[in-house]
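ZP: hey, is the zinc ion complex queued? I don't see it on the tracker
AM: it wasn't, my bad. submitting now with these inputs:
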Amino acid sequence: MQLSPAYKTIFNKALEKSSLKPTKQREHIFSLILDKKDHPTADEIFTRSRDTMPTISLATVYNCLETLVESGLIRQVNFERESTRYCPNLKPHAHFLCKNTGNIYDVDLPDSIFSALKKNLPENFQTEQIDINFNGSIKKN
Ligand SMILES: [Zn+2]
């Protein structure tokens, strides 16, 4: 899979900033995560990646994911007792885990919530990321 020109620029810039090389595999994994924003696990990404890149190994997929997280292109999503998932939405947001389906949804939150949360910290505490997770179920209408 290939990235759109706009994402290709974002991808190259982010890796360059972290002094990392924009390899074919890294681009492939990033485009897969962008393609279907369903918060896949590493195993799911591995399965999907083999459709178009049959020679890729699970170890390579893990390495790519680590690189993409390190360069800030994706973030890890962790719920208790669940495998790590990956999310390409870099706007501050929360996640909602539906306990019936296991699906994870992005929940947009206003910046004011995040800054209000940070105000509770001692002055010398530097926040890099805030993870807000909702657990529950989705009622059918
Ligand atoms: Zn997300």
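AM: back. Residues 32 and 48 are 8 Å apart (CA to CA).
ZP: great, adding it to the tracker
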